[in-house]
C-alpha cells in the first residue's frame, strides 16, 4: 500500500462556513494535480470491480480527498468528495469499526462542506466531521501518524467556539498535545501544536515544540520520502519557517 498522504491542515476554513468567504484555493500545481487525477482514476476503476473491498474503498476515499483538495472549482470539489463519502459509507455498512473509513469520511465531508459554503448545510457538516474524527480516534488514534487526534485538535482550534460552532481552546490543546505525544516524529503534529501555541501566546511552550520539531526534522526527512511526500514537505517547510519567524517576532531568537 502506498504511503498515506493527507493534507493535515484542515482544508475547511470553519469560521466562514456560515457567514461567507471560503478557504483559499487548493494547491493547483499541475504536477500534483496530474498525479492526483491519475490516482483517482485508478482507484475509481479498481473500486468498481473490487474483490478486495476494504483496500479498494480506502484507495478511493484517499484519492477522492487528495483530488478534491486540489479542485479548481467548487462543483468539481463537491462531485469528487461525494465519491469518497459514498465509498466510506458503503465501507462502514460492512465494517462499522473500520477506523480508516470514519477518518476518510470526515476528510471528504470537510471537502464537501467547503464546496457548499457558505450555507447552513455546510455549517452543520462541521458536526459530522467532528463525530467521524472522534469515532476514528476511539478505534485507532494512531492511524495516519495520529491523524484522528491531530485533525480533531485542528478542528477545535480553527472552528468558532460555542454557540457558533464546536471550537474549544481546551479541546484543541488536549488533542494537539496528544497527537504530538503519540507521534512526535511526524512533522505535522508538532507544527500544528506550535502554530496553536503561538496564536495562544504560549511562547515558552511554543519554543519547546519548535525545538523538538528541529531535532526530529532530519530523521523525518530521511524516513518520509518519495513522490507522495513532495507536496507535504513543501508545505511543512513553509509552515516551519513561518512559525519560527512568528516566534522571533514575538519573543526573539529561539
List keywords for this structure.
single chain, 10 helices, 254 residues, mainly alpha, Serine Threonine Protein Phosphatase 5, Tetratricopeptide repeat
Major sheet characteristics: none
Average pLDDT taken over every residue: 89
User: What Rg is obtained from the alpha carbons, in whole angstroms?
Assistant: 18 Å
CATH third-tier fold name of the domain at 1-140: Serine Threonine Protein Phosphatase 5, Tetratricopeptide repeat
Strand content: under 5%
Shape: globular
CATH class category of the domain at 1-140: Mainly Alpha
What order do the SSEs take from the amino end to the carboxyl end, as H and E?
A: HHHHHHHHHH
Q: Name the CATH architecture of the domain at 1-140.
A: Alpha Horseshoe
Walk me through the topology.
Layout (H helix, E strand, L loop, with lengths): L29 H19 L4 H17 L4 H21 L4 H18 L3 H21 L2 H16 L10 H14 L4 H13 L3 H21 L6 H22 L3
Q: What does it look like?
A:
- This protein is mainly α and 254 residues long.
- The protein has a domain at 1-140: Tetratricopeptide repeat domain (Serine Threonine Protein Phosphatase 5, Tetratricopeptide repeat).
- It has ten helices and no strands.
- It has helices spanning 30-48, 53-69, 74-94, 99-116, 120-140, 143-158, 169-182, 187-199, 203-223, 230-251.
- The radius of gyration is 18 Å and the shape is globular.
- 44% of the residues are buried.
Amino acid at each position: 500500500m502506498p504511503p498515506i498522504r493527507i493534507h493535515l491542515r484542515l482544508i475547511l476554513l470553519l469560521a466562514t462556513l456560515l457567514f461567507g468567504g471560503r478557504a483559499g484555493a487548493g494547491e493547483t500545481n499541475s504536477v500534483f494535480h496530474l498525479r492526483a487525477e491519475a490516482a483517482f482514476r485508478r482507484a475509481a476503476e479498481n473500486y468498481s470491480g473490487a474483490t478486495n473491498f476494504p483496500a479498494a474503498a480506502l484507495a478511493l476515499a484517499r484519492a477522492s480527498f487528495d483530488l478534491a483538495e486540489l479542485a479548481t472549482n467548487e462543483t468539481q470539489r463537491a462531485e469528487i468528495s461525494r465519491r469518497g463519502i459514498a465509498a466510506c459509507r458503503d465501507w462502514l455498512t460492512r465494517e462499522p469499526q473500520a477506523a480508516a473509513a470514519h477518518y476518510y469520511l470526515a476528510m471528504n465531508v470537510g471537502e464537501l462542506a467547503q464546496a457548499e459554503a457558505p450555507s447552513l448545510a455546510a455549517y452543520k457538516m462541521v458536526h459530522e466531521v467532528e463525530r467521524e474524527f472522534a469515532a476514528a480516534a476511539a478505534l485507532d488514534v494512531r492511524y495516519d501518524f495520529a491523524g484522528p487526534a491531530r485533525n480533531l485538535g485542528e478542528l477545535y482550534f480553527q472552528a468558532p467556539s460555542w454557540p457558533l460552532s464546536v471550537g474549544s481552546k481546551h479541546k484543541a490543546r488536549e488533542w494537539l498535545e496528544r497527537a504530538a505525544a503519540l507521534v512526535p516524529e511526524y512533522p505535522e503534529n508538532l507544527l500544528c501544536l506550535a502554530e496553536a501555541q503561538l496564536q495562544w501566546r504560549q511562547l515558552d511552550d511554543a519554543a519547546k515544540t519548535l525545538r523538538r520539531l528541529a531535532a526530529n526534522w532530519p530523521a523525518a526527512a530521511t524516513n518520509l520520502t518519495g513522490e507522495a511526500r513532495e507536496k507535504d514537505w513543501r508545505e511543512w517547510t513553509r509552515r516551519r519557517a513561518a512559525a519560527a519567524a512568528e516566534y522571533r517576532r514575538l519573543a526573539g531568537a529561539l
